[in-house]
Amino acid sequence: MPHSLAVSIEEIVRRPDPKAAGGELVEIHALLHVERNSQKPMLLGKGGQIIKAIGSEARAGMETLLGARVHLELHVTVLGEWQDDPKKLNRLGY
């Protein structure tokens, strides 16, 4: 994992779960921000294996926390030097 990693939630949508009567499905769209292009492969891994493992583990924890089924979409973006830019830090919620 890169040390300069930030996560922002773009959207959370709650709706009835089509697979469970009376259940809820929570769709979460998140961005994983790194500072350099060279850090993207660290998160993606060969064939997307690392990002898939990250998503699976995070989804399981969220399902426990929320008490609902979760669909988690993760995307990796490069946000150059975000740690040194007050505007970028503010946009990320720091």
Q: What would you say this structure looks like, in words?
A:
It is a single chain. This protein is α+β, with helices and mostly antiparallel strands. It has a single domain (about 5-90), classed as GMP Synthetase, Chain A, domain 3 (2-Layer Sandwich). It contains 3 helices and 3 strands, in the order ββααβα. It has a 3-stranded mixed β-sheet. The model has no long low-confidence stretch (mean pLDDT about 95).
Summed up, the domain count is 1
**Name given to the CATH architecture:** 2-Layer Sandwich
Helix-and-strand structural type = alpha+beta
Helices, by number, come to 3
> What's the CATH topology label?
GMP Synthetase, Chain A, domain 3
- State the fourth-level CATH superfamily: K homology (KH) domain
Helicity level, as a percent range?
25-40%
By CATH reckoning, the class would read: Alpha Beta
H/E series = EEHHEH
Rg over CA atoms, rounded to whole Å, is 15 Å
Amino-to-carboxy terminus distance: 20 Å
Low-confidence runs of at least 5 consecutive residues: none
Oligomer type:
single chain
Average pLDDT confidence is 93
Number of separate strands: 3
Q: How many strands, what sense, and barrel or not for the largest sheet?
A: 3 strands, mixed
Pfam family, one: KH_2
Protein name: KH domain-containing protein
Domain KH type-2: 2-82
Keywords: RNA-binding
